[in-house]
Specification:
11-stranded mixed sheet; Isopropylmalate Dehydrogenase; homodimer; 11 strands; about 325 residues; 12 helices; alpha/beta
């Protein structure tokens, strides 16, 4: 498999990204190739610093970098020779099998839409996180950051994408889908969640169980929790923050330590016509390594093809 | 002082509310009187069950109940003899000094607006939570549930209310105000937070430090964190949920146990022209007791008057 990595994306790039790629390489098979997109000189310097050789990787030299202050759509169109733009070009032309980045999620979304595109009928792809449940198992939380603004019909579709992802990735036959809200009653919440509730109630293609409060993310009554990318990203970061705060006080066990972002590394963009993985901006080398290995898992489990098939039915 | 309590509000009313009032009475001074608003027969039954006498309280009999499914503004206007409507009437006529309820926050907001009203120039009052910081001290989180939809100018004003509340309640001279967001950069977030950021940056009356991510709620870089009532309520409930999940695993210490809602009981509605306290819907008798005692503290600390004075300057 050919695994694409944006070396320039993330708060600690290119140090953390190259170091992560070096670590990942040790756990991949000889058939796998990591394709690094970024400034060749910097990549080689970092490979040298990590006692690794450029011969072990494929380097695609790019001259531009899209940073966190750039407007996503504009930057993607304007910076044609950025690591993200070139990476998506490679993904579109099937010169790589997956593309991962810890850079701007907005740019990754724009890149996806303008290169490989989204699956037929999908309004907006979404980022899916897997949150460990208290009693074992995982909850799919969608969207966790790609769509800070999401219309009710988009939220409703996140339910569908999340439900099908739970079928493919978690092998749950009939995933129960809940809408994240400040109360269980249908009329609770803001205008967006009230409208989404009405749409989701009538959506035959997924098993909607109603509004759920945050505690349900950690329980077994629901398999998929839907929210927009603004709320989802805040919830994720709040969970990570508390796990860190508690951890620093020595309050940690196997369960709590699973809330560390290093463990999940990167998250798949559901609805994209290709394997697109987005990592945390603060990704260190361990998180980047996990993101690379995860992109292989996701590619090998054919989630993109399965999702497309399920959506067509 | 005359402390008003809506006996019919909350998931466990009237059992928990009356039991909480009985507990609170033991810690109040002989000059204090708890005024109970609700169904007299039920109140008396509960007082009897708690080995307490109706003589120790003042009971204002009401015949209607506003429940969680009622539309706030409509219900408040239609159910004139509900415990909340009559309670607010008493507050307006200064027959009580504070009014507390664990009932619908939407109805409490409507009740405030249509009875005592809001302070001059205030668009919407907001509910302020005090979140314990890791290194000691508290962070004011506003709004945590009264305004699930808040326009940018309303968010900007929450900063002002929160800042002045931090001055009064936490004795911080120049509170640092942050906007809760999914990234530190000004252009991050949804359309609402981007617009709010622009307004807050230009607001001279409070010290805006920019966007803050959830981890900052627990740190010392900021004193006030602003968000709308939908996000704030989810964040609060997410914190409580994790504290409970971790607590059940035996991961608990003095700091973590402070994230229990029973400890803060009720929260003040900032910007209301009177002492209005709103409790958690799931309030048990301990939380109700705390809410009642807190209403006395807030009344005695003259926060309403001080806030009004600060806003006029």
């Amino acid at each position: 498999m050919r695994i694409g990595l944006d070396v320039m994306g993330g708060d600690f790039a290119p140090q953390a990204t190259v170091a992560g790629a070096v670590l990942a390489l040790k756990e991949l098979s000889p058939d796998d190739k990591i394709v690094l997109f970024g400034d060749e000189k910097q990549i080689k310097e970092q490979l040298y610093a990590n006692n690794s050789s450029a011969d072990d990787f494929e380097i695609v030299h790019t001259t531009e970098v899209i940073d966190m202050h750039d407007k996503p759509v504009k930057a993607f169109a304007a910076k044609k020779d950025s690591s993200i733009s070139v990476g998506f070009e490679y993904l579109k032309e099937k010169k790589i099998d997956s593309f991962s980045s810890a850079g701007s999620t907005g740019v990754m979304l724009a890149g996806t839409i303008f290169s490989v595109g989204v699956m037929e009928g999908i309004l907006r792809p979404c980022l899916a996180a897997l949150i460990p449940k208290e009693q074992g198992g995982l909850t799919v939380l969608v969207d966790v950051g790609v769509n800070p603004d999401a219309k009710p019909e988009v939220l409703c579709q996140f339910g569908l994408l999340g439900s099908n992802y739970a079928k493919c990735a978690l092998k749950i036959n009939t995933p129960k889908v809940g809408l994240l809200n400040i109360g269980e009653e249908a009329e609770k919440g803001n205008a967006q969640s009230q409208a989404a509730h009405t749409l989701m109630k009538d959506e035959k293609a997924c098993c909607f169980v109603g509004n759920v409060e945050p505690i349900e993310i950690f329980k077994s009554n629901v398999d998929v929790v839907v929210c927009d990318g603004f709320v989802g990203n805040l919830i994720m970061k709040n969970i990570e923050a508390l796990a860190r705060v508690f951890g620093k006080r020595g309050l940690v066990d196997d369960y709590v330590s699973r809330f560390n972002y290093e463990i999940y590394g990167g998250l798949p963009l559901l609805g994209a016509n290709g394997v697109v993985i987005i990592g945390h901006g603060i990704s260190n080398h361990k998180a980047i390594k996990t993101m690379i290995l995860q992109s292989k898992n996701i590619y090998n489990s054919h989630i993109t093809e399965k999702l497309r098939e399920l959506l067509n039915n």
